[in-house]
Amino acid sequence: MKNTDKPARPAAPVTHKPRNSKALSHRLGRLRQPGSAGTLPQFRPADAPQPGRNVVLDCGWGRLLFARTFEDDATLLIALKDEAPRSRDIAFYVGEPHVLLSRAPQEIFLDPSHTFRLDLSTYRPGGRRPRGITIRRLGVEGDAAGINAVYAACGMVQVREDFFTGERDNRPVSYFVAQDDKTGEIVGTVTGIDHKRLFDDPEQGASLWCLAVHPQARQPGIGEGLVRTLSEHFQARGLAYVDLSVLHDNDKAIGLYEKLGFRRVPLFSVKRKNAINEKFFAQPVESYEALNPYARLIVDEALRRGIHVEVTDAEGGFFRLAHGGRTIHCRESLSDLTSAVAMSICDDKAVTRRFAEGAGLVVPEQISADAPDAERQAFLEKHGKLVVKPARGEQGRGISVGVSTTEALGTAIKQARQVCDRVLLEACFEGEDLRLVVIDYRLVAAAVRRPPRVVGDGHAPIRRLIEQQSRRRAAATGGESRIPVDVETKRCLAEQGFDLDTVLDEGREITVRKAANLHTGGTIHDVTDSVHPDLVDAACRIAKAIKIPVVGIDFMVRDPAEPDYVFIEANERPGLANHEPQPTAERFIELLFPGSRAYPGA
Predict the structure, then answer these.
(1) Most exposed among 127, 141, 229, 327, judged by the fewest C-beta atoms under 10 Å?
(2) What does DSSP assign to residue 153?
(3) C-alpha torsion angle, residues 553, 557, 561, 564 (rounded to 10)
(4) Calpha distance 448→557 (Å, rounded)
(5) 378 CB contacts (<8 Å, ≥6 apart)?
(6) Is the distance from CB of 201 to CB of 40 less than 8 angstroms?
(7) Where are the annotated segments for Disordered (predicted)?
């Protein structure tokens, strides 16, 4: 017979909120993917200490629910349903996930991750630590913002602002950061949880969360260094093991963990069905995986808002969005809202320059590469250094920056003609490359784009350093950013007295290309909060002059916080990715579908 007796409502779970001491300034964490540990022993001495019950840990990005401390599934489900908006809660160490899922299949799902465990009794410290990087405990003013910047760059849920304030008990939670010795920037982070201190775990276990390395970090081995540091920290405490969880298809991370001695264990995690987790449980968009990161960013935002997505040509980045009777075709950030006239203005750099000049912007002096030899030579002598670029083209192809000799000028022109028959020569303005993303004639993001650089280790030739950095850039951008080893790269090295076989001294950093385009290995650094108002005004004026609703305006500046600039070009299809934490995709979708809102929990 079916039992119709209704069980009493379980007691509410106990929530543990880690507190910050003033000495450590801020505490934070963020889950990458769930981890797990073994089940509680079936037999325990009567006088043995009992572990905590219904343990929930607030991590700022969401909560960790240690499922094996919950008295039953009903209590765990009640806790999971209490998830806050814009958060990602995780039920960790679920012993029988199939049973839990059967109780609320419409609300929860099994996380598609593998759990790995490191046995600290056999782990041997060591390994090569990253050069130019200091790994330390969280504690310096500004660390919290630095960690959130890393999370944003990695596409992870950021820690809410109120988590950074107040006193928090930090004993169960350990935060480590990797700091670039040269720039002082936080480029990596990891969070560890001591289960013994958190809920008197009889197994003396621990778990690793939120391992993240900034995609633009220059030094290799940061992730390994963070994992080793945390593992040795817990080993010194006398703990037995460290668990972590990683997406089943993250081959690079899995390779790292296996290299360090982690072994896969059959443990599981469960999450709620919300907008943040949608891609893990919802019917996938056909050809979604074939989209590049720039198209995928927009598609993800559309799906969060309940907008229908149809991928029309994945290789080219084309997709169609439909919502409320309105349909718009896009190619990444280029949409039906951009007219053919506006696109043609941006397509020809000489025409774009004339529009910018007409709008009152400061433009560089420019001549055609088809000018007589004497005129070209006089132009070179007048300005000392030139920028050579095809009149039409994108992604930095064919561009040479800082050309200063007649021989180099001829070579650069030939290289540019491989992209477009018409080639332009411009006066070279020394400074930084500033990209301003303007959507609906308002600034959404500003970022300094810096050329690719490598750091010597005293052993590897520059060629190998470039290959290593190029692989990291490609991995961080879905294959969109690589450093080409071409005539321009060789010219840049030669000007500094190097070639591809030169071995740099340990710690010496050099620029290997002068163009800062992301597609040729450049990196991008957000300056939205500090960009000078005059630069914002100039970018919006040229956007209005062209009558283009979405555009990337490129300036050369000495300092983005100062008003001086020279206009370079306008890009009708700006990449909206890599501008974290600015809401580029959100503003783009709001332009296309005014009034659309993300689903609750997004």
Answers:
(1) 141
(2) H
(3) -100
(4) 9
(5) none
(6) no
(7) 1-51
pLDDT score recorded for residue 216: 86
Which DSSP symbol is given to 418? T
Amino acid identity for residue 429 in this structure = F
Q: For residues 386-425, b (16+ Cβ closer than 10 Å) or e, as one string?
A: bbbbbbebbebbbbbbbbeeeebbebbbebbeebbebbbb
- Is residue 458 exposed (0-12), middle (13-18) or buried (19+ Cβ within 10 Å)? exposed
The helix (H) or strand (E) run that includes residue 298 is helix 293-304
Distance CA 479, CA 465 (A): 18
Nearest CA among 22, 92, 26 for reference residue 57: 92
Tell me the C-alpha distance between 545 and 358, whole Å: 8
| DSSP letter (8 states) at residue 92 | E
In the chain, the amino acid numbered 32 is R
Instruction: Write the DSSP string, 118-145.
Output: EETTT-----PPPTTEEEEES-STTHHH
Which residues partner with 569 through β-bridges? 554
Length of the chain: 602
Task: Give the per-residue pLDDT at 304.
Answer: 84
Residue 423 near residue 526, CB atoms below 8 Å? no
What's the CA gap between 525 and 115, in Å, rounded? 34
Beta strands in 223-381 (DSSP E): 241-247, 263-265, 268-272, 308-313, 318-323, 326-331, 334-335, 366-368
For every residue of 435-489, DSSP letters joined together read EEEEETTEEEEEEEEE--EEE--SSSBHHHHHHHHHHHHHHHTTT------SHHH
**How does strand 386-390 pair with strand 366-368?**
unpaired
CA 293 to chain centre: 11
Measured distance CA(585)–CA(318) in Å, rounded: 16
Q: Is 210 helix (H, G, I), strand (E, B) or coil?
A: strand
Stretch (H or E) spanning 378: helix 373-383
Residues 17/163, Cβ–Cβ less than 8 Å: no
Give, for 109, the enclosing helix (H) or strand (E).
strand 108-110
pLDDT by 10-residue block (mean), the chain, 602 residues: 43 50 34 36 41 88 95 94 92 93 94 95 86 88 88 88 60 92 93 95 96 88 95 96 94 93 95 88 86 92 90 96 94 97 93 95 92 91 90 80 88 89 89 95 95 88 90 77 88 91 90 82 91 97 97 95 94 90 94 80 50
Q: Which residue has the tokens 């991590």?
A: 59
Judge if the upstream peptide bond of residue 581 is cis by omega within 30 degrees of 0: yes
Place of tokens 């391992």: 211
Residue with tokens 């009493």: 8
